[in-house]
From TrEMBL:
PROSITE patterns found in the cross-reference section: HTH_HXLR
Domain HTH hxlR-type: 21-119
Protein name: Helix-turn-helix transcriptional regulator
UniProt keyword DNA-binding present: yes
Keyword DNA-binding: yes
Organism superkingdom: Bacteria
Short name of any one Pfam family annotated for the protein: HxlR
Amino acid sequence: MTQPPSLSDRLRRGDVLAAACPSREVLRHVTGRWAVLILIVLEEGTQRFSALRRRVDGVSERMLAQTLKHLEHDGLVARVSHAVVPPHVDYTLTPLGEEAAAHVRRLADWVEANVPQIVAARG
């Protein structure tokens, strides 16, 4: 029989299944529909806001800004504002963001590879 993790182990790692665990908020930010797509695009390199909006088809300006703000707050995306007219802002993945992007890209790849089976299961 396996022993449940000790309290110190849970505190060190976090407990995503617990409602009060801070990892829940990060998980929500990273796995949101728009965040997954933004992270995948940013894996290709630094992007301006307008380029991200064009690449992530269907995202509104408001949702793109909100999602980038969450990802920046979580330390996954770096925002660099250039003092020029008109304003020029670049977004790039941090090292932590690169790691997160690799994980969500693998999930997105799995989804795309299995779409025919998933659609068929829906009936």
